[in-house]
Amino acid sequence: MREIIHFIGGKAMDHGSRQGDVFDPNTGAVQAKVQFGMAATVDAAVEAAAAAFPEWSATNPQRRARVMFAFKALVEKNMDELALMLSKEHGKVIADSKGDIQRGLDVIEFACGVPHLLKGEYTEGAGPGIDIYSMKQALGVCAGITPFNFPAMIPMWMFGVAIACGNTFVLKPSERDPSVPVRLAELMLEAGAPPGVLNVVHGDKEVVDAILTHPEIKAVSFVGSSDIAQYVYTTGGAHGKRVQAMGGAKNHGIIMPDADFDQVTKDLVGSAFGSAGERCMALPVAVAVGKGTAEQLIERLLPEIERIRVGISTDPDSVYGPVVNAAHKARVENYIDMGVKEGAKLVVDGRGFKLQGYEDGFFIGPTLFDHVKPTMKSYQEEIFGPVLQIVRAESLEDAIELPTKHQYGNGVAIFTRNGRTAREFASRVNVGMVGINVPIPVPVAYHTFGGWKRSAFGDVNQHGPEGVRFWTKIKTVTARWPEGDVGDQSFVIPTMR
Ligand code: NAD
Question: 112, 142, 165, 280: which is the annotated catalytic residue?
Fold first, then answer.
């Protein structure tokens, strides 16, 4: 059976005695084994990254940008191969895999502007004969720990900006779909990044803990579920690291009575069920505001849900594919059971969905609940599956309160034709990313990505200017030059020949 191993110092590396299963979510079969590293594997990766750091950080930013341009071109050239690899391990359809890769490439494109992004500030004459300037310097060896749901985009969010800024990097991707991250590291080497600049170590908690406690690692970026994010944030912080840790989500779509219902229906179907709901910016909660809004919505949603074709991830006609593994399928179906027990009305039941010829695949049909209440656990927690929950609200005030009081605060969207309503909502809601008639308001690469409350621990967002801030430290120089001749003529400044 194929074994997926680490990538350290520019080479594939066999290290570790434990393995994990990588499933084919379409068939339910194990398609590969991934080697789980140990603390010593992390040591080896850090050693390679530390050895590469002096030269890489001293490479001028234009040259580093050229590597980023070359990497972008290589990923584009290999897009079909990467998308297929991703769909086969994750279970998202090819179009979504290409989107996953493209959103990562957008960040690489942003990182290509690194010479401009690293420019410091300068004040002439801050005092008599005194000038002040600041520089943004690389931190050293940095690390990223990523979730299964965007195995291309999220690693690129992290290493794209970190490497362009002059750091060297150890990536610990999700053990559930580890092939694409390794391929990206190979392409980075091919693009001209010296060996050791980007390393990949596979594993589970053992490797994560080794990263969080390693004295040589200066900064850790994490994306995953909230309890682990909080653990990473506190443990990494206690070991003196700069940490940003993005967590789970439960994004609300507020539907005002004056919304464009045709558009809302399309948007909800795409954002609640697309990628089997395994997106941290999915819209799994629809808040229907005012009398009759929920009924109108359900009437339009039902035929659209009926039309959703659930199929294998490599079938171009599938709208969405299986979820990532059997444990996740069971977890999502448990939440559906819970919703029923809690008294929500199950309008469409996706449990027990079987795809002919793929009966052991991890498929779940689209599921719709109505009359979901904020007191229900199935509302309070993240389900991360193809499940849409309708909550009924009487007024805009109630609709603002729901996402504001929820434990998660990643994204939210409001659908209305009233600019004043939208403006007030955007200003008051206690959530990090807001869409106005935009269902999945993922900011573009040159803005920044980050939620609030239990959706993100730490103060600095991913990519954009915030990313540059996270992956660099500022040094400020205050300089005064003595007047008069240089006394000691034996000291000669060397000249360039
Ligand atoms: P996860 O928390 O299970 O895993 C994330 C990473 O943590 C993986 O690399 C995993 O190996 C590691 N990990 C798992 N258990 C660990 C433990 N006990 N100790 C240390 N490390 C551990 O998350 P997932 O299931 O891979 O991804 C889905 C989650 O990620 C969802 O909650 C989703 O909302 C969230 N997510 C958030 C964002 C965001 O930007 N806020 C983006 C994407 C996904």
Answer: 280
